[in-house]
Amino acid sequence: MLFRILLPNGRVSLYSGRWDKEDSPLGWRALVPSGSGGTTGIVVGVSEGETEREVIEFPDEAPLLNQWGLSLVEELSLDYLMHKGVLLFKLLPSAFLWKEEELLTIADIKPVGLDRKSLEIIEYVRKRRGVKPENLKKKYNPDLIKLLLKKGFLAIKRSWRAPDVEEKFYRLNLPLKEALKKVRSKEKKRLLVFLAGKELVSEEELIEWGFKRRLLNELLREGLISLEREHLSRQRDKGKPSVELVKRVFGGRVLIWSTFEKALQEIAFIAEQNLNRGHSTLILFPDYGELERSISVLNYSFGDKLIEIHSRLQARRVYENWFRAYREPVVVAGTYISMLCPAHSLSTVVLFDESSAGVKLRHVGNLDIRRASLILTKKLGASLVFTTPAPSLSSYYMVKKGRMNLEGEPPSPETTVIKRDPTEVLTEELYKQLKIYKDKDILFLVPKHGYSYVYCPRCETLSECPECGTFLTYSLKREELYCTRCRYQREELTCPECEGELEEVGFGLEKAVEVIEDNLGLEDNFHFSTHPHWESKHELVVILSADSLLSVPSYRAKEELLLYLLKAKNVAGEKLFVQTLFPDEEVFKALNEGATETIYSKELEERERDMLPPFWRLLLIKTTNRELENYVFKVVSPNVKSTYNVRENSYELLVRFRERKTLWKVKQLLKRFSRDIIEVKVDPF
């Protein structure tokens, strides 16, 4: 049989191989040869014909992806102009991307008569059970390594870099009384007693109980216990998982606007309903801190029915959990890499904290998890639930259009907006209030790292990063200028443009801490942060200044400020204080009056008028060809605006579009003008 296999480089190649399973090969993982050794691919189809390339192995005993996952990748690859293979392997856990690599290992020859350095090299390789040649040559003399290879003390072998995907189980080979007579060690006797009366015990469980692998190996050699291996992806039952569309359980699409605790309670209730019906729930967390905080609560509710899938989990555990979700109804809690998990009878997808900055995957072509979740649930016929401390404008728009139901009760602490002068960090009015509530648990917020911005009188502008154009931040502690976007650093405290002296402007978190310490002292109940974290709760929340969010040159500036204020309000148990230079700005007035929904409505009106998201999508094309704008205007979209980027010496074309067919036209544009186009970004901001 010929298999069409999607590779990590984005290409689809043909490989021959045997297929003796009853199921379709679509979605199965395959290890295949490549130019540099071997790599991992996914079967996306079958074909006819001949090829000399053969599949090395299908390493799993269940498909890695179901039809919905493959279809989702297909649609998203067009939506974000990415190669399917590149997108797929960016969304999958790295535990599934196996590569064959060349390693230096110890040969069978005994290292007799070698000098001390050669013995050190051999011991180094032995302890690591193989080392990449390039890594060993960085640490030791390449000529000496070459000599050890020539003399046969070192050998080269090819090995697949992959997690251990087999579970080891142990059992007694003899009746307990007979086995105990054959050992003297108390440790061995304790292990034999532990195994007695049990059908099989996993190695992981034995290690957790304090038994050493050395004991297991010794008892195996003595024939007192036996070892069985089971592949982690194997189905232990004969029934096949359901792949049919499931009925909605929770009323289609819901946006839950509430506190962290209440949102978690709602999700736990939904997941419990699903489990009772034999269905799974997928909970996606854009923020790892919120995932970590939620796990303990969900674990209490669901025990071993809760499985985690995220990059901080061991590769072996990710592998095991992935295929367990395929076999049985579970609650999957994970980051974006769990999105393609083929969960058994998936009936609800939850995006926890849909307004988190993490919903936009910058390293995956700006892919928006909200959009991906919406497409996935459409394909599955499943329910979609967003939870949020403050609704994003796009989600609020879905509510206004009747595409999503709004539920929950956002908290409403007493809110006070205080006018401050440009030179003030702590106003007299706020200082008096804080003296009264000094013993309360207080969170101080400033949406800026460092000590302050810096101003160059000679250039008459705020000092900018020479790499990306972002305003530079001054850090008093580190005594340097740095960029919060591209990590540019400058030790000289002078203007990067003209070398002139700089002046402090505004203030960041470092200066805020300094001023609070001078006026109120630093108490254990005082907390400082650049952003409010939904999973935390404080009696008082104090925003010392959030005006800098309005100065960001972005159409999303007002939305970002509103979300910041509402998130701070969400974590304030009793009171919220907000200092600002602009108390008459409509966002602050609406916050003070409890009328923030009017800001959402006004912002939507402005966005629709200006042809901006969520009504339109944006596409940014960077090019060296000045004439490309005319072609884009005529062929791709008439809604295009061109600007010249002096720093990058390129032209930037911002295209507004609504229809997906525009993206097909852009794909043709990329083929025709590949030499002229530097970069294309979908949803760039």
TrEMBL record:
Keywords: ATP-binding, DNA-binding, Helicase, Hydrolase, Nucleotide-binding. One of its GO terms (biological process) is DNA recombination. GO terms for molecular function: 3'-5' DNA helicase activity; ATP binding; DNA binding. Gene3D superfamilies: P-loop containing nucleotide triphosphate hydrolases. It comes from the Bacteria. It comes from Hydrogenivirga caldilitoris. The keyword DNA-binding applies. This is Replication restart DNA helicase PriA.
